[in-house]
Amino acid sequence: MTQLARLRGLQTEAALPAEAAILHVDMDAFFVSVELLERPELRGKPVVVGGRPDARGVVSAASYEARKFGIHSALPLRTAARLCPHAVFLDGDHAKYEQWSDRVAAILAKFSPVVEMASIDEAYLDLAGTQRLHGPPLAAAHKLLSEITRTTHLPCSGGLAATRLVAKVASDQAKPRGLLWVPAGSEERFLAPLPVRKIPGIGEVTERALRALGLETVAQLAALPQEKLEKVFGQWGTALHRKARGGDAYEFVIDAEPKSISQNHTFGEDTGDAQALEGMLSHLSQKACKRLREAGLDARTLTLTIRYAGFETHTRSRTLPAAACLDADIFRVFLELFRANWDRRRKIRLLGVSLSGLEHGAQQLSLLDPERQEKLEKLTRAADRLRDRFGFGSVRFGGSLPRDGS
Ligand SMILES: [Mg+2]
To answer: Measured between alpha carbons, how far is 368 from 373 in angstroms, rounded to an integer?
Structure first.
């Protein structure tokens, strides 16, 4: 990524480049396709890679025939077996997939000096400036995809566009075995009718929040004023506004909705000092909560990690009845988890807190005690402002105050 990022950075500083041309290449149902090379008799059948149908794991790839039954990657294998009992279940062989990925990468390297493997089965290529060698970008893209299919017998798809985001959406729309070109200037028209979830970086959480605002398509998202999006989503709103127009930006740190927010601390020396441990826990909890609020999110699931001397690690989670973002509400739960699960005879090496089950803009006000909630929210936000001005150590709530001024 850095190579491409650097190159594009240079281009904007120097003279405008020849027409930007990013090709996103994505192998179709990659793990399944590799397995089918050795088992051609399974072609046209529902095939699932990931493990036995009664195993505990999840699906890592499904053939297009299996997808018709609602099977997709990350689905529990047992659920997949229920959806399609006659599917063929295969164990995955990651080393084998890596080898095939390397073969594909070697072909990609022939077409551009700038190749970024985004994962084992997808890559971005910069085709601007490869004209003399391979012809116009669309012809080069076509040649490249044909060469992959001819030499590896693995199916793949491609998307060609002026930005990475649009190229990736285009390759997805082209699947399977397709190539889709979105000429510069037609990005918004191309994206407009698609559901918002098709935009890279927009996951389930943002999709749900957008639906609550009445937004289902990219066109509807693009029509919303930037200020409105920023009011609801904070910095993420700026990114959403840009994404809805097909824009890329490397300078943005937040480019996908977070899945979890974690804070860990490894002690310089293993410790069994309850007060020091609980103080650190409060500090970690406050830091994570601040990041949570900055992202405009609430968390539903809290996970505590305790690692003892000797690296034995225990994690304990609790799911709250309602999502929360306030220091006091979240720390209380972490403290309970800690007190209930720490084996006091043992010294601790690392403490960690993690917030997940994230939601946008859930209502914080509890109906039971609105006054207390409001006071706490005010206090929390005032503390956030002070921390922004004076650094994190300047405001701590009781429980994380160090003893003996240390
Ligand atoms: Mg793929």
So the answer is: 9
Domain assignments of the chain as residue spans, ordered by start: 1-184, 191-243, 260-405
What separation in Å is there between the alpha carbon of 28 and the centre of ligand 1? 5
Does residue 330 contact residue 324 with C-beta atoms inside 8 Å? yes
Please tell me the predicted confidence (pLDDT) of residue 205.
Answer: 86
How many angstroms does the Cα of residue 137 sit away from the middle of ligand 1? Answer: 21
Could you tell me the distance, in angstroms and rounded to a whole number, from the CA of residue 82 to the centre of ligand 1?
A: 24
Catalytic residues: 122
Burial class (CB in 10 A: 0-12, 13-18, 19+), 126: buried
Domain 191-243 has CATH 3.50.50.60: no
Tell me 76's DSSP state.
B
Can you give the length of the chain in residues? 406
Contact 284, 348 (CB under 8 A): no
The whole-number pLDDT of residue 375 equals: 63
**pLDDT digit string (tens) for 87-142?**
999 999 989 999 999 899 999 989 988 888 888 899 999 998 888 888 899 999 99
| pTM more than 0.85 | no
Contacts of 127 (CB under 8 A, 6+ apart): 21, 22, 23, 111, 112, 134, 137, 140, 141, 160
Question: Are 57 and 79 within 8 A, CB to CB?
Answer: no
Question: What pLDDT score does 7 carry?
Answer: 39
The residues of the chain scoring below 50 in pLDDT are 1-17, 251-253, 362-368, 394, 398-399, 401-406
Q: Which CATH architecture has domain 1-184?
A: 2-Layer Sandwich (3.30)
Cα(313) to centroid(ligand 1), Å? 34
Say yes or no: domain 260-405 is CATH 3.40.50.880.
Answer: no
Rounded distance, CA 238 to CA 230, Å? Answer: 6
* Rounded-to-integer distance, Cα 187 and Cα 169, Å: 10
Residues 49 and 154: beta-carbon distance below 8 Å: no
Tell how far the Cα of 30 is from the centroid of ligand 1, in angstroms: 6
Give the model's pLDDT for residue 224. Answer: 95
Q: How far is the CA of 122 from the centre of ligand 1 (A)?
A: 6
